[in-house]
UniProtKB/TrEMBL annotation:
One of its GO terms (molecular function) is transaminase activity. It catalyses: 6-carboxyhexanoyl-[ACP] + L-alanine + H(+) = (8S)-8-amino-7-oxononanoate + holo-[ACP] + CO2. Gene3D superfamilies: Aspartate Aminotransferase, domain 1 (3.90.1150.10), Type I PLP-dependent aspartate aminotransferase-like (Major domain) (3.40.640.10). This is 8-amino-7-oxononanoate synthase. Its cofactor is pyridoxal 5'-phosphate. It comes from Streptomyces zaomyceticus. Belongs to the class-II pyridoxal-phosphate-dependent aminotransferase family. Keywords: Aminotransferase, Pyridoxal phosphate, Transferase.
Length: 417
Protein backbone atom coordinates (compact mmCIF):
# COMPACT_ATOMS: atom_id res chain seq x y z
CA UNK A 1 0.00 0.00 0.00
CA UNK A 2 1.41 3.39 -0.94
CA UNK A 3 1.77 6.14 1.70
CA UNK A 4 -1.28 8.43 1.73
CA UNK A 5 -0.46 11.90 0.40
CA UNK A 6 -1.10 13.56 3.75
CA UNK A 7 1.51 11.38 5.46
CA UNK A 8 3.92 11.67 2.53
CA UNK A 9 3.78 15.49 2.84
CA UNK A 10 4.13 15.39 6.59
CA UNK A 11 7.05 12.97 6.49
CA UNK A 12 8.80 15.05 3.81
CA UNK A 13 8.50 18.14 6.05
CA UNK A 14 9.83 16.09 8.97
CA UNK A 15 12.87 14.94 6.99
CA UNK A 16 13.60 18.46 5.76
CA UNK A 17 13.48 19.87 9.32
CA UNK A 18 15.62 17.03 10.65
CA UNK A 19 18.14 17.58 7.85
CA UNK A 20 18.45 21.25 8.82
CA UNK A 21 18.87 20.56 12.53
CA UNK A 22 15.47 22.11 13.29
CA UNK A 23 13.96 19.20 15.22
CA UNK A 24 15.97 19.17 18.44
CA UNK A 25 14.99 16.32 20.76
CA UNK A 26 12.94 17.13 23.83
CA UNK A 27 15.34 16.68 26.70
CA UNK A 28 14.43 14.01 29.18
CA UNK A 29 14.98 14.38 32.87
CA UNK A 30 14.56 12.01 35.79
CA UNK A 31 13.57 14.74 38.23
CA UNK A 32 11.80 18.10 38.25
CA UNK A 33 13.76 21.29 38.94
CA UNK A 34 14.49 22.05 42.58
CA UNK A 35 16.23 23.94 40.70
CA UNK A 36 18.66 21.04 40.24
CA UNK A 37 17.54 18.56 37.61
CA UNK A 38 18.92 15.06 37.05
CA UNK A 39 18.97 14.40 33.32
CA UNK A 40 18.49 10.94 31.92
CA UNK A 41 22.19 10.84 31.12
CA UNK A 42 22.72 10.85 34.91
CA UNK A 43 24.16 14.39 34.93
CA UNK A 44 22.72 16.94 37.30
CA UNK A 45 22.37 20.49 36.02
CA UNK A 46 20.79 23.70 37.37
CA UNK A 47 17.59 24.58 35.55
CA UNK A 48 16.67 28.10 34.54
CA UNK A 49 13.67 26.89 32.50
CA UNK A 50 10.80 26.41 34.90
CA UNK A 51 7.71 28.60 35.35
CA UNK A 52 7.46 27.28 38.89
CA UNK A 53 8.39 30.72 40.22
CA UNK A 54 8.00 30.04 43.92
CA UNK A 55 8.77 26.31 44.19
CA UNK A 56 5.56 25.78 46.15
CA UNK A 57 5.08 22.21 44.90
CA UNK A 58 8.15 21.21 46.94
CA UNK A 59 6.62 22.42 50.19
CA UNK A 60 5.69 19.71 52.68
CA UNK A 61 2.20 21.19 53.33
CA UNK A 62 1.41 21.14 49.60
CA UNK A 63 2.60 17.57 49.11
CA UNK A 64 0.68 16.44 52.21
CA UNK A 65 -2.54 18.07 50.97
CA UNK A 66 -2.12 16.40 47.57
CA UNK A 67 -1.37 13.01 49.15
CA UNK A 68 -4.41 13.17 51.40
CA UNK A 69 -6.74 14.13 48.52
CA UNK A 70 -5.24 11.39 46.36
CA UNK A 71 -5.86 8.89 49.14
CA UNK A 72 -9.46 10.05 49.66
CA UNK A 73 -10.55 10.61 46.06
CA UNK A 74 -7.99 8.76 43.84
CA UNK A 75 -6.23 10.55 41.02
CA UNK A 76 -9.10 11.18 38.56
CA UNK A 77 -12.64 12.53 38.53
CA UNK A 78 -13.46 10.69 35.28
CA UNK A 79 -16.16 13.23 34.42
CA UNK A 80 -16.85 16.81 33.58
CA UNK A 81 -18.12 19.09 36.34
CA UNK A 82 -21.73 18.97 35.13
CA UNK A 83 -21.86 15.20 34.79
CA UNK A 84 -20.71 14.19 38.24
CA UNK A 85 -17.13 15.46 38.42
CA UNK A 86 -17.91 18.44 40.66
CA UNK A 87 -16.01 17.66 43.84
CA UNK A 88 -16.57 20.12 46.68
CA UNK A 89 -12.81 20.75 46.70
CA UNK A 90 -13.08 22.38 43.26
CA UNK A 91 -15.64 24.86 44.51
CA UNK A 92 -13.51 25.54 47.57
CA UNK A 93 -10.56 26.32 45.29
CA UNK A 94 -12.73 28.56 43.11
CA UNK A 95 -13.91 30.65 46.01
CA UNK A 96 -10.39 31.02 47.50
CA UNK A 97 -8.98 31.98 44.12
CA UNK A 98 -11.73 34.52 43.44
CA UNK A 99 -11.05 36.11 46.82
CA UNK A 100 -7.29 36.19 46.15
CA UNK A 101 -7.72 37.71 42.68
CA UNK A 102 -10.39 40.11 44.04
CA UNK A 103 -12.90 39.03 41.42
CA UNK A 104 -16.53 38.13 42.17
CA UNK A 105 -16.39 34.58 40.83
CA UNK A 106 -14.10 31.92 39.36
CA UNK A 107 -14.25 28.67 37.43
CA UNK A 108 -11.48 26.08 37.28
CA UNK A 109 -10.43 24.27 34.13
CA UNK A 110 -8.11 21.31 33.70
CA UNK A 111 -5.27 23.41 32.22
CA UNK A 112 -4.45 27.08 31.66
CA UNK A 113 -4.74 26.55 27.92
CA UNK A 114 -8.34 25.43 28.40
CA UNK A 115 -9.05 28.42 30.66
CA UNK A 116 -8.14 30.80 27.83
CA UNK A 117 -10.20 28.87 25.31
CA UNK A 118 -13.14 28.72 27.74
CA UNK A 119 -12.91 32.43 28.52
CA UNK A 120 -12.44 33.84 25.02
CA UNK A 121 -14.78 31.57 23.10
CA UNK A 122 -17.21 31.54 26.05
CA UNK A 123 -17.75 35.27 26.42
CA UNK A 124 -17.98 35.70 22.66
CA UNK A 125 -20.33 32.81 21.91
CA UNK A 126 -22.34 31.90 25.01
CA UNK A 127 -25.10 34.44 24.28
CA UNK A 128 -25.51 33.14 20.74
CA UNK A 129 -25.46 29.52 21.93
CA UNK A 130 -28.17 30.30 24.48
CA UNK A 131 -30.25 31.77 21.66
CA UNK A 132 -29.66 28.74 19.44
CA UNK A 133 -30.43 26.11 22.07
CA UNK A 134 -33.15 27.83 24.08
CA UNK A 135 -34.36 30.77 21.99
CA UNK A 136 -33.15 33.39 24.51
CA UNK A 137 -32.80 36.96 23.25
CA UNK A 138 -29.40 37.85 21.74
CA UNK A 139 -28.20 40.77 19.63
CA UNK A 140 -27.84 40.21 15.88
CA UNK A 141 -24.41 41.81 15.42
CA UNK A 142 -21.42 39.49 15.57
CA UNK A 143 -19.10 40.28 18.46
CA UNK A 144 -15.53 41.44 17.80
CA UNK A 145 -12.36 40.18 19.45
CA UNK A 146 -9.14 42.20 19.30
CA UNK A 147 -5.99 40.71 20.79
CA UNK A 148 -2.36 41.68 21.17
CA UNK A 149 -0.35 40.13 18.33
CA UNK A 150 1.92 38.36 20.84
CA UNK A 151 -0.91 36.73 22.81
CA UNK A 152 -0.54 33.06 23.74
CA UNK A 153 -1.70 30.44 21.27
CA UNK A 154 -4.62 29.45 23.53
CA UNK A 155 -6.09 32.97 23.30
CA UNK A 156 -5.87 32.76 19.52
CA UNK A 157 -7.48 29.31 19.66
CA UNK A 158 -10.41 30.68 21.69
CA UNK A 159 -10.84 33.54 19.22
CA UNK A 160 -10.68 31.20 16.20
CA UNK A 161 -13.16 28.81 17.76
CA UNK A 162 -15.64 31.66 18.26
CA UNK A 163 -17.97 33.16 15.70
CA UNK A 164 -16.56 36.66 16.38
CA UNK A 165 -14.79 38.93 13.94
CA UNK A 166 -11.07 38.68 14.78
CA UNK A 167 -8.41 41.41 14.76
CA UNK A 168 -4.97 41.91 16.25
CA UNK A 169 -3.33 45.05 17.55
CA UNK A 170 0.40 45.78 17.56
CA UNK A 171 2.20 44.44 20.57
CA UNK A 172 1.39 46.51 23.64
CA UNK A 173 0.33 49.46 21.49
CA UNK A 174 -2.78 50.94 23.10
CA UNK A 175 -2.96 53.69 20.45
CA UNK A 176 -3.13 51.10 17.69
CA UNK A 177 -5.85 49.34 19.67
CA UNK A 178 -7.79 52.62 19.91
CA UNK A 179 -7.54 53.02 16.10
CA UNK A 180 -8.81 49.48 15.63
CA UNK A 181 -11.74 50.02 18.00
CA UNK A 182 -12.81 53.30 16.40
CA UNK A 183 -14.27 51.34 13.47
CA UNK A 184 -16.49 49.20 15.72
CA UNK A 185 -18.59 51.75 17.63
CA UNK A 186 -21.58 50.18 19.37
CA UNK A 187 -20.44 46.58 18.79
CA UNK A 188 -19.84 43.98 21.52
CA UNK A 189 -16.04 43.96 21.83
CA UNK A 190 -13.57 41.80 23.73
CA UNK A 191 -9.96 42.99 23.99
CA UNK A 192 -7.36 40.46 25.15
CA UNK A 193 -3.82 40.89 26.40
CA UNK A 194 -1.44 38.95 28.59
CA UNK A 195 -0.52 40.64 31.88
CA UNK A 196 3.12 39.52 31.53
CA UNK A 197 4.05 38.30 28.07
CA UNK A 198 5.20 34.73 28.30
CA UNK A 199 7.99 34.81 25.74
CA UNK A 200 9.13 38.43 26.11
CA UNK A 201 8.70 38.95 29.84
CA UNK A 202 7.36 42.49 29.40
CA UNK A 203 4.32 43.87 31.21
CA UNK A 204 1.19 44.92 29.35
CA UNK A 205 0.45 48.63 29.42
CA UNK A 206 -2.64 47.93 31.48
CA UNK A 207 -3.36 51.51 32.58
CA UNK A 208 -3.65 52.66 28.94
CA UNK A 209 -5.45 49.50 27.81
CA UNK A 210 -8.05 49.97 30.57
CA UNK A 211 -8.59 53.60 29.49
CA UNK A 212 -8.97 52.67 25.83
CA UNK A 213 -11.37 49.83 26.59
CA UNK A 214 -13.46 52.01 28.90
CA UNK A 215 -13.63 54.76 26.26
CA UNK A 216 -14.87 52.27 23.63
CA UNK A 217 -17.18 50.20 25.84
CA UNK A 218 -14.99 47.12 25.31
CA UNK A 219 -14.42 44.32 27.83
CA UNK A 220 -10.75 43.87 28.73
CA UNK A 221 -9.52 40.34 29.44
CA UNK A 222 -6.06 39.79 30.92
CA UNK A 223 -4.41 36.40 30.79
CA UNK A 224 -2.41 36.73 33.98
CA UNK A 225 -0.72 33.33 33.75
CA UNK A 226 2.70 34.78 34.60
CA UNK A 227 1.51 37.69 36.75
CA UNK A 228 -0.55 35.77 39.30
CA UNK A 229 1.45 34.95 42.42
CA UNK A 230 4.33 37.12 41.23
CA UNK A 231 3.23 40.74 40.68
CA UNK A 232 1.42 43.16 43.00
CA UNK A 233 2.08 43.91 46.66
CA UNK A 234 -0.22 41.02 47.61
CA UNK A 235 0.95 38.76 44.75
CA UNK A 236 -2.50 38.75 43.18
CA UNK A 237 -1.21 39.82 39.78
CA UNK A 238 -0.77 42.62 37.31
CA UNK A 239 -4.10 44.39 38.02
CA UNK A 240 -2.97 44.85 41.60
CA UNK A 241 0.56 45.83 40.46
CA UNK A 242 -0.92 48.72 38.45
CA UNK A 243 -3.53 49.72 41.06
CA UNK A 244 -6.29 48.53 38.74
CA UNK A 245 -8.12 46.09 40.99
CA UNK A 246 -11.79 46.09 39.93
CA UNK A 247 -10.96 47.60 36.50
CA UNK A 248 -10.15 44.37 34.61
CA UNK A 249 -13.48 42.57 34.39
CA UNK A 250 -12.26 39.26 32.95
CA UNK A 251 -9.05 37.46 33.93
CA UNK A 252 -7.38 34.11 33.46
CA UNK A 253 -4.83 32.51 35.76
CA UNK A 254 -2.94 29.26 35.48
CA UNK A 255 -2.31 26.97 38.41
CA UNK A 256 0.79 25.64 36.65
CA UNK A 257 3.20 28.49 37.30
CA UNK A 258 3.50 30.36 40.63
CA UNK A 259 1.12 27.87 42.28
CA UNK A 260 3.34 24.99 41.13
CA UNK A 261 0.37 22.81 40.14
CA UNK A 262 -1.79 22.06 37.15
CA UNK A 263 -5.00 23.67 35.92
CA UNK A 264 -6.41 27.05 34.98
CA UNK A 265 -8.98 29.55 36.18
CA UNK A 266 -11.31 32.12 34.63
CA UNK A 267 -12.32 34.99 36.90
CA UNK A 268 -15.16 37.41 36.30
CA UNK A 269 -18.64 38.44 37.39
CA UNK A 270 -21.09 35.78 38.53
CA UNK A 271 -23.39 35.80 35.51
CA UNK A 272 -20.52 35.65 33.01
CA UNK A 273 -18.94 32.73 34.86
CA UNK A 274 -22.31 30.93 35.04
CA UNK A 275 -22.72 31.31 31.25
CA UNK A 276 -19.22 29.90 30.68
CA UNK A 277 -20.02 26.92 32.90
CA UNK A 278 -23.01 26.13 30.71
CA UNK A 279 -21.72 26.86 27.22
CA UNK A 280 -17.94 26.99 27.14
CA UNK A 281 -16.30 23.96 25.57
CA UNK A 282 -12.98 24.31 27.44
CA UNK A 283 -14.96 23.78 30.64
CA UNK A 284 -18.04 21.80 29.73
CA UNK A 285 -16.67 19.10 27.44
CA UNK A 286 -13.65 17.90 29.38
CA UNK A 287 -12.99 16.14 32.67
CA UNK A 288 -12.61 18.20 35.81
CA UNK A 289 -9.38 18.85 37.66
CA UNK A 290 -8.25 15.89 39.79
CA UNK A 291 -8.73 16.27 43.54
CA UNK A 292 -5.04 16.22 44.42
CA UNK A 293 -4.39 19.17 42.12
CA UNK A 294 -7.19 21.18 43.71
CA UNK A 295 -6.02 20.33 47.24
CA UNK A 296 -2.38 21.11 46.38
CA UNK A 297 -3.32 24.49 44.88
CA UNK A 298 -5.44 25.44 47.89
CA UNK A 299 -2.44 24.66 50.12
CA UNK A 300 -0.07 26.56 47.80
CA UNK A 301 -2.39 29.56 47.68
CA UNK A 302 -2.56 29.71 51.47
CA UNK A 303 1.25 29.69 51.70
CA UNK A 304 1.49 32.36 49.02
CA UNK A 305 -0.89 34.59 50.98
CA UNK A 306 0.64 34.03 54.38
CA UNK A 307 4.35 34.13 53.46
CA UNK A 308 5.11 37.19 51.31
CA UNK A 309 8.83 36.57 52.02
CA UNK A 310 8.91 33.92 49.26
CA UNK A 311 8.11 36.59 46.70
CA UNK A 312 10.78 38.86 48.18
CA UNK A 313 13.32 36.07 47.53
CA UNK A 314 12.06 35.70 43.96
CA UNK A 315 12.38 39.44 43.30
CA UNK A 316 15.85 39.61 44.86
CA UNK A 317 16.88 36.82 42.46
CA UNK A 318 15.30 38.64 39.52
CA UNK A 319 17.31 41.77 40.36
CA UNK A 320 20.56 39.80 40.74
CA UNK A 321 20.14 38.08 37.38
CA UNK A 322 19.06 41.18 35.49
CA UNK A 323 21.80 43.42 36.91
CA UNK A 324 24.39 40.70 36.16
CA UNK A 325 23.16 40.50 32.56
CA UNK A 326 23.38 44.29 32.28
CA UNK A 327 27.05 44.05 33.30
CA UNK A 328 27.48 41.65 30.35
CA UNK A 329 25.88 44.22 28.05
CA UNK A 330 22.50 42.49 27.88
CA UNK A 331 19.26 44.34 28.59
CA UNK A 332 16.34 41.93 28.15
CA UNK A 333 12.83 43.44 28.04
CA UNK A 334 10.59 43.50 31.11
CA UNK A 335 11.56 43.64 34.74
CA UNK A 336 10.47 40.23 36.02
CA UNK A 337 11.48 36.57 36.21
CA UNK A 338 11.04 35.84 32.47
CA UNK A 339 14.32 36.91 30.88
CA UNK A 340 14.65 36.46 27.11
CA UNK A 341 18.03 36.67 25.37
CA UNK A 342 17.58 37.04 21.63
CA UNK A 343 19.71 34.80 19.44
CA UNK A 344 18.47 35.60 15.94
CA UNK A 345 18.38 32.09 14.51
CA UNK A 346 17.08 28.73 15.74
CA UNK A 347 20.56 27.26 15.27
CA UNK A 348 22.25 29.91 17.44
CA UNK A 349 19.62 29.41 20.15
CA UNK A 350 20.08 25.61 20.05
CA UNK A 351 23.87 26.02 20.17
CA UNK A 352 23.59 28.29 23.21
CA UNK A 353 21.41 25.74 25.01
CA UNK A 354 23.85 22.93 24.18
CA UNK A 355 26.97 24.82 25.29
CA UNK A 356 25.34 25.94 28.52
CA UNK A 357 24.22 22.41 29.27
CA UNK A 358 27.83 21.26 28.93
CA UNK A 359 28.75 23.72 31.67
CA UNK A 360 25.95 22.49 33.98
CA UNK A 361 23.16 25.02 33.31
CA UNK A 362 19.92 24.34 31.49
CA UNK A 363 18.60 27.41 29.64
CA UNK A 364 15.95 26.50 27.14
CA UNK A 365 15.93 27.67 23.50
CA UNK A 366 12.56 28.93 22.25
CA UNK A 367 11.97 28.26 18.56
CA UNK A 368 9.00 28.24 16.11
CA UNK A 369 6.06 27.96 16.35
CA UNK A 370 6.34 29.55 19.81
CA UNK A 371 8.20 32.53 18.27
CA UNK A 372 9.17 33.55 14.73
CA UNK A 373 12.47 32.09 13.36
CA UNK A 374 14.23 35.47 13.41
CA UNK A 375 13.27 36.09 17.06
CA UNK A 376 14.49 32.76 18.43
CA UNK A 377 15.72 33.21 21.94
CA UNK A 378 16.98 31.70 25.12
CA UNK A 379 14.25 32.08 27.70
CA UNK A 380 15.66 32.17 31.21
CA UNK A 381 13.26 31.96 34.12
CA UNK A 382 14.48 32.62 37.61
CA UNK A 383 12.67 31.44 40.72
CA UNK A 384 12.70 31.77 44.49
CA UNK A 385 14.39 28.34 44.56
CA UNK A 386 17.65 29.61 43.05
CA UNK A 387 20.45 30.76 45.31
CA UNK A 388 22.95 33.54 44.65
CA UNK A 389 25.73 31.12 43.77
CA UNK A 390 23.61 29.51 41.05
CA UNK A 391 22.72 32.88 39.54
CA UNK A 392 26.33 34.08 39.62
CA UNK A 393 27.47 30.76 38.13
CA UNK A 394 24.97 31.11 35.30
CA UNK A 395 26.20 34.62 34.53
CA UNK A 396 29.82 33.48 34.47
CA UNK A 397 29.04 30.64 32.09
CA UNK A 398 27.06 32.96 29.79
CA UNK A 399 30.09 35.22 29.71
CA UNK A 400 32.41 32.26 28.96
CA UNK A 401 30.40 30.79 26.10
CA UNK A 402 29.26 33.97 24.37
CA UNK A 403 32.35 34.33 22.11
CA UNK A 404 31.65 30.83 20.76
CA UNK A 405 28.27 31.84 19.35
CA UNK A 406 28.71 34.02 16.25
CA UNK A 407 25.35 35.81 16.51
CA UNK A 408 25.73 36.49 20.21
CA UNK A 409 28.37 39.21 20.29
CA UNK A 410 26.51 41.16 17.63
CA UNK A 411 23.23 40.89 19.52
CA UNK A 412 24.87 41.88 22.81
CA UNK A 413 26.31 44.96 21.11
CA UNK A 414 22.93 45.90 19.64
CA UNK A 415 21.28 45.65 23.04
CA UNK A 416 23.83 48.05 24.59
CA UNK A 417 23.35 50.68 21.88
N1 LIG B 1 -1.21 31.55 29.03
C1 LIG B 1 0.10 31.84 28.98
C2 LIG B 1 0.50 33.27 28.83
C3 LIG B 1 1.05 30.83 29.08
O1 LIG B 1 2.34 31.13 29.04
C4 LIG B 1 0.62 29.49 29.21
C5 LIG B 1 1.58 28.32 29.33
N2 LIG B 1 2.84 28.49 29.05
C6 LIG B 1 -0.73 29.23 29.26
C7 LIG B 1 -1.63 30.28 29.16
C8 LIG B 1 -1.24 27.82 29.39
O2 LIG B 1 -1.08 27.39 30.71
P1 LIG B 1 -1.01 25.85 31.09
O3 LIG B 1 0.41 25.42 30.88
O4 LIG B 1 -1.40 25.84 32.52
O5 LIG B 1 -1.95 25.12 30.21
Amino acid sequence: MSTPTLFADLHAAHDWLAGHGLLPPERRSETLPTPHVRLLSGRTVVSFCSNNYLGLNHRAEVKAAAAQALHEHTHATSESRRLGGNLGLLEELESELAEFKKQPSALITATGLLANIAAVHGVLDAGELARRWYGSPAPDARPVVVYDELCHRSIQMGARQSSAERLRFRHNDAEHLADRLAAYKGRAILVVTEGVFSMDGDLADLPRLVEVCDAHGAVLMVDDAHGTGVYGADGSGTASHFGLVGRVPLQVATLSKAFGGMGGAVLGDERTIAMLRTFSSGYRFTSSLPAEQAAATIAALRILRSEPGIRDTLWANVRRLRSGLARLGLHPPGDGPIVPIHMGTPQAAAMFEELMLDTGYWCVAVTPPAVSPETCRIRLTVSAMHDQEQIDGLLERINDISPKIPAFAEIANKQTE
